[in-house]
Every structure is written in structure tokens, then in C-alpha cells.
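Quick one, T. Sequence first:
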Amino acid sequence: MLRKKTGSFISWLIIVSLCFNFFGLPGVASSNNNYKATYTNSTATALPSTTASIMSTVTATYAPTTTLHSTQTGLTVHFKKPSSWNSAIRIHYWNLNPATVPISGAWPGILMKSDGNDWYSYTIAGAMGSSLIFNDGSGKQTADLSRSVKEGWYYTDNTWYDANPEMPKIPVISASPVPKTYDSSQTVTLSSTNSDDKIYYTLDGSTPTTSSTLYTSPIQVASSLTINALGVNSIGQTGNASSFAYVIDLNADLQAPTITANLPAGHSDSSVTVSFTIKDNKAATTKAYYTEDGTEPTINSKVYVLGNALAGLTGPSILISKTTTLKFLVIDGAGNQTKQSFVYNIGNNSDFREDTIYFVITSRFYDGDPSNNVHAWDDAKARNPDSDPAWRGDFKGLIQKLDYIKALGFSAIWITPVVQNASGYDYHGYHAINFSKVDPRYESAGASYQDLINAAHAKGLKVIQDIVVNHTGNFGEENLYPMFKKDPAKPDTANNLVKTTDKLPSNYDTLTPNQQYQARLDLMKNEGTNNNIYHTEKSLSWESYTVQTGQIAGDCVDLNTENPAVNKYLIDTYNHYIDMGVDAFRVDTVKHVSRYIFNKYYIPAWKTRGGSDFYIFGEVATRYRDVWNSGIPAISTPFYTWKSSKSYPGDKKNDYASNKASVEQEWADNSTTAGQPTSNNALLNGNTYHTPDYSMKSGMDVIDFPMHWAFKTAHEAFNMRSGDQYYNDATWNVTYVDSHDYAPDQAPENQRFAGTQDTWAENLDLMFTFRGIPAIFYGSEIEFQKGAVIDPGPNAPLSKTGRAYYGDHIEGNVTVQDYGKYTNATGTLAESLNHPLAKHIRQLNLLRRAVPALQKGQYSTENVSGDLAFKRRYTDADKGIDSFALVTISGNATFTGIPNGTYVDAVTGDSKTVTDGKITLTCSGKGNARVYVLNGRGGIGETGTYLK
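C-alpha cells:
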């Protein structure tokens, strides 16, 4: 998630401006520069980049290109004038098809014909397609548009139509509930296409006319009955009659059977024995079929149990000794079916410090299924073309490129949130409308989220799911605070959201987008209407308690996490993803939620569900070259790695009032750095590894934001170790140079890392050999989009940003034998794997995987000379591991007082014997490194441009 720099008031103003741009806050203009240009070349194919300055809140979605079959000799377009525009509506057009058609000439173009009711039209004679902009000649304009269908109506809902959308449609009647057999009386509601249609109906089987009964209220159906109905719209057009047949059979069996487990699905350290009980509402033979390999059961699958399930029917016990997905198909005597899955995760997860992480924005990584590509609502404003919609990459593409990630040597993938989103620019996943549902824009046949998890596990890759508990988008949450839901049968646009509340203003549909946004917030942030689901704080100060109760952005409405109902929903929802096999959570916007709530609710619940080794790490965005954020521990990175050392009013209670009092008190108790806990868990005692003390560990680790912020150079980042004592154990910190939000301070921070390649290589050396778990943002291995602005929101095409589509660089295949070991790479994928930084990362992955001290070792710089030099050791007597490594990066170093013995450089294979406790390592070249391991082995992997 985007974060703002804490500090000065001026910085705060800058950040708020960025916030508006990133999150697409309704009603906020992206620039104060109006587009003014003159075109003299009829072959121009694109507008200058200055067209990013769109002064109107009107945006558009791109219509699919359609081949023109009409004999019409011109292209006619219609435009609905926004209320804030003046009446001199003009059209500016270029890029004509055929190219012989003249362009409109100098900006602002040609006056359009007024057709009344704020509609304007213009015909481009002889054209079959064109790029165009509507404007009022005085600073208001749309984004770049295009049209290649013979006649188009551009309406205020930002969509092209093939007919006037304000003309009433021919009425089509629908009925709710759907006509079918019911076992009880029903109340039937009729509706028509247009809200002001009149509906006439009969109940005697006759054909309805305008003389029939006028529908004014729901119809009670107590016995079998057919309702015939027709509609008449406001201009007198009559639709076809519709017939709705209801059968009321009080003896009908319409209920599907249920299946319950004697043991809840979830995690267990050891084998479990499970059994399942089938129950039905009628006395008839019920059959339950099942599979154990994750495939969908059919009537040809194994029978689990059959018989009369009226009183409950329990089947035999099943021993689960490894992670298993049991899928059931239960069919009762009337043919009613129930399908249900139970996932049992067995065994301990390995120590996550043994892994390295590759981070992707799923929608921007690889497009495995072009048929599910779709534009975000603000794609037109961003000028993302049909060839590169914001929603492009998908699970199928990620599955297809898992081998690429493993070939680089990574063993874990971190993916942006998978939950269903709704906002103008939601392709990144942080604007949820339904936490419990996977966004269908990621999925395709044979490539569900479960399929991705299964495919990753089959290749030995762990899946880290990015999650949010701090906020939802501004359309509510379908289950937690229902306001809207998405209609899967309609295109994904704001106007196609289905309202699920009657609390919005009656004129909501006619309000401007900014007014609609405010109406939603008035419900979500009002104590009288929000049921304590959202915080009601209207302002936000980055250095005060309101940072945890205020709203950080327009599309991030702050959830009231002191409310136990909110916590229960989020815990239950994310437990489902753990049950699917997710290996770890990366938690977004952590500093905006109280540590008290994490420690009381979320962490214990997820550790219980996923096992004590389930890895959780959080983003505590503290953009300071200091371990303390403005001197306030309660919003600082290391703070969240600790349990509290005192009791609070909410302990052993589960109510809102005591939680709120506890959160406020914990903030007050940690407003200064005095008395903050310290730890030596990351530090060696001389040369000796000691058992860490985790008695006060919270269970949540963190992204090392202070180190990230200092990673302009490795030397600056290395200096941040001075704060390691304030983490419970800094060896669990996730480290990175740049990400989907930031690069390091002064790198510059808003661009993908723009340092030299050897600076990148040196930074990577430190990340992979020093304490912490390395994470690489997709494409960094080839310096992808180097120097591009990471995230300007919908104010520039994604192709020009740090979130550009990566797939063009990984076309082709590769055969992977193990992490970082592969053959037969082809296409651009092979070119990417051969990039100097990609080879460097692969070599570092191989080194780290081979030396336990580099994964889990404590460290020390005592008796070590050298600018980037340290020693690390990890000991596990039960497993026979004692790994001791000496590291120097980009320069020589001398180590004294070390154990005698033979040290072998894992990079070159050079061997040195120490007899007097002293060794000098020689290392030349920026980005080069030496890793001398006591009784180790050398020549791991291949040398390259930097490691040599």
C-alpha cells in the first residue's frame, strides 16, 4: 500500500496530494494544466503526454474494437454534457480510419450540434473510426477516447453505448423469487426494465393487456399459480408478455443435505482422524461420494456412506497423515446435491528464514488467459489501451511462470491481495468489497486460486497472501457492511454495482460521482448508521493516535478493529485462505491498526489455524532513517514484534468498550521510547550462537522499513543494524530495496530503484547474506522500469510506471531441476535469466540456500574490520547443524578472535586454514563478496559479473 512520509507539515501536504492521485479520490483533478495543442498532421497517431491533465471528473471505459459492417459513410457520435460544463461543446478528432479523412484541425476542435436535454452530436463524414476528445473549449475535457462503431452515445456513466442510453428500453418483466417449485407460500415481486414502467398482470391464465390489473404491490402465492404480466414504458412502448409459473407443494423435498466434520478443517502438527455426518430433512436414501486428491467428486467416485440420513448418518473414520483436501458430493433421494471441501494441513511449516521471496502484482505479471482481461474503471483516465488493461495478468499466467521464479532460486511468492475489489483503480487488490471472495478477474478455467496454491506447492514454492484488516474500499463490504455488490452478469463498471441498502439517498443515482462518494462516506463514517463497523474519525494526523482511527485515503475507509464483530469476520475469512493452503500472510497497513488488537485477536487466531510456524509479517510504513517513527514507538516498526508487558481492560473480555479503552491506553503507554524492550536474539555472544528468547515475541514479524528506507546504498542500509536490539528478533525481518510503493529515501523514493547496476548488486549482496529474509519486487532482476515513477495512480499509463506489465520479458519456457538450477530456457525468458542482475540473484540464492548461517544465523561485527563485513553463526544440535560464516562485501576485511580451522569461500572455493584466530579476506570490485564458511564447501553455483 502507498504510505506517506511522516514529519513536517509541508511533507504532509505533498503526501495528501499523492494520496489523492494514487487512490483516485472522486472529484480531485489530476493537474491544473489544461490541454491546449494544435494538430496539423493528419497522420498523428497519439496525443502528447500532456493529455494526462484531465480537468473534468468525467472519465471513460474503452469499448471493444468492432469491425464496421454498415454502409454508412460517416461516424456519428453523441455526447451528454456534464452539468459543470458550458454549452459550447466541441469535438477534437484525429487518427482517422481511413487516413484520407481530414482531422478536426486546431484545438479545441469543432462545435457539436445541440440535440436538446444536454445531448450533442457530430458526424465525421467518411470515417469508420477515430480517436477523439469532447471538451467545452474552456478547460473541461474528457480523456482520450476512441470509436470504431458507426454510431456511439457517450454518457455520464463513462461508457459508450450503441443506442441512446436515456431512451427507455422496451419493458421486460422479471419476478422474484424465481418461478419454480416451493414447499411454502411465496411473496412474489414483479419488476420491469425501467423504474417507471407500468406493469399489468393476470392470475387466471389469460393474456394481460393494459386493461388488466395494475401491479402496485407484491402478490401472495399460497397455492400453485401462474402470473402473466406485461410492461409499458413512459413513451407507450409495450413489451412482450411474460409468464411465471409457481408450484406450491407442501410435501416437496427441496432442501439439500448437510455434511459436517467431527474435526474442523485446518492445521494440525500431527496426523488426525476425521469422520463426517450427513443429515437430510426427508427419510430417503442419501449417498455421499468423496475424493482425497483434490479432484471434483462425481457419482463414479468412492462412496463414503449411504442410507437414511433423516436422523444423521456418520461415515467411517479417515486417517489424514499429510496435507489433504477431501471433497464431497452428497445427493439425497430427491436429487438435491451438496458439494463441500475440507482441507487439513498436517505437519510443521519449515522455518521461513530458509526461504527467499519473489513479490508480484498478479494483474501486472503475466497474462495466461487474455479472455479475462478487463479495464479498471479509470483506465481511460490513465490512458491504458485495450492492449494493456490494468487487469491483465492472472492466476493462470502466474502458474505458467512458477518455473521462472524457481529458476531464479526463489522458494516463496508473495502476491497482492486476491479478494474481490471495487474502485476506480483497483487492479492492485487493496480496495476490497468482499474479503471472503476471490476476485474473478484473476481466475479462469482450471486456474482458480486453489489451483495456483496447489501448483505452487507441487513445485516446492510457498504462497504468501497479502491481506488487509485496516480498511475496505468506499463501496462497503458485501458481508461486513453491505452497501453494494457486484453483478457477475454485467460489465464491471461503477454503475453496474447493485445497491444492497436502502439507506443511501433516494436520488443517489442522479448525484455526481463526488456527491455519491460523499453519500457513501456519510453512511460508513456516521455513528448512527455504521454499527461501529468503521471508525468515524474525519481527520488524520500522521503523528498522533488518529493515524489508527482516521481514513488514509479515499478508497481506504478505516475499519473499526476495536469492534469484536469486525475482528471475527476478518479472522474467519482469512482462516479460510489458510485452510486452502496459504503458507504465510503479509499484512498491509499495520501501523494503522493498534498492536493490542493484533496481539489479542489476529495473531493468535491465525497461528492456531495455520500452526505455530505460520509466518506473518507486516508492513509498518515508517519512512525514517531511524528505528523510531517520530520518536513514537506505538507506530514504529519494531514495536509490533513484541507482546505487551502489562495488562489492559480488554484482556479476557470481548466487547467494544473495553477494547477501545485498551487501545487508547496502550498508545498512551508507548508515546515515548523510554522503557521499550530490547533483545539480543539477533546477536552472537562473541562467536557463539545462543538459543533465542521468544517468550515476549508477538508472533508477527515485519518488513524492515528503516533498512529499506536507507537502501540507497548498502553502507547506509548496513548502518541501520544499530536499531536491531529493539526488534524481538531482527533475523525474521523481511528486507527489500524497492517495492510496489517505494524505493529508498533519495534513490529517489518515488521511482523504481535508479541506482547504478553495481549499486544494485552490492545491495543484493547485503540482503542475501546479512540478517533477514530477502524479497525482490518483480522485474528487479533485469532492472525493469529503472527510474520510472512507481505509482502515479490513474494519471499515467501503467506501461510508463513501475507497475508496468512484465509478461513480454518472460515469454518462453524453462526446465527447472531445483531452486536456481535449470536448463533449456527459451525466448525472452532466457534473456531475462541471463541478465547480469538475474544471474547475480540466482547465485546469491544458491549461496544462501547452501549456508544455514546466512539463513538463520545470529551476527556480530565484534573484532571485524571492513566497511561491509560481519560474521554469522547458526547452531542446531538436534539436527547436527553448526554453520559459521565470515562475510565481506565489496572490499577486504580482517576477522580476529575466531575459531581455528579450515574456512572455504562458498563463492570461489578458496580455502584458508586459521591457526591463530585471525583471517584476512580479500575482495575487490563493487558488488563482489566473499563468504568463508568453517568446514564449508566452495564453488557454489556459477561466478558472474559481480560475484567472482
